[in-house]
Design a protein that fits this description.
Elements (H helix, E strand, L loop, with lengths): L6 H15 L3 H30 L10 H8 L3 H41 L27 H5 L1
Length: 149
């Protein structure tokens, strides 16, 4: 819950709480913790009641309809039959991604080697900005191909 807050933001929130609640802050914190404990107890009680009524062991995560159907309605064979085509497609996509990654690395290596043979210096030049009209437009006397070269 607080994972996206920095320490500075947490300290600022604590200072704000002290200014707002003052001397009542410990009582407000204990009331909040008591409320949280009661909510957790009620959720556990509801899941145990539901589990007892349905005759299966249900966890709080199981109350998501997709998870509930997958775990309690479909058999293991049904689940495997549903997932088998998706696993095949997933493996094909991974293989294609690995091939593309290899091709891109090869292209980058060739570009670096071609860049080293251009002349003095490190072989790198600062890229010229492309004209606002796009690659096919002309700005002044130079073309887009001159910008690339």
């Amino acid at each position: 819950m607080l994972s996206n807050l920095s320490w500075v933001e947490i300290v600022a929130l604590l200072l704000l709480a002290v200014f707002i609640f003052g001397d009542k802050l410990p009582q407000v914190i204990s009331d909040g913790l008591r409320l949280l404990r009661n909510l957790r107890r009620m959720a556990r009680s509801a899941t145990s009641d539901l589990s007892r009524e349905l005759g299966t062991d249900i966890q709080l995560e199981d109350l998501n309809p997709k998870t509930f159907i997958r775990r309690h309605v479909l058999s293991d064979a049904d689940q495997e039959a549903l997932l088998k085509p998706l696993k095949g497609i997933s493996e094909e996509l991974r293989a294609q991604a690995r091939g593309l990654e290899k091709d891109l690395k090869d292209i980058a290596t060739e570009a670096e080697q071609a860049g080293d043979g251009r002349g003095a210096g490190s072989g790198r030049r600062d890229a010229k900005p492309v004209s606002p009209g796009g690659p096919g437009s002309r700005s002044g006397s130079s073309s887009a191909l001159d910008d690339i070269a």
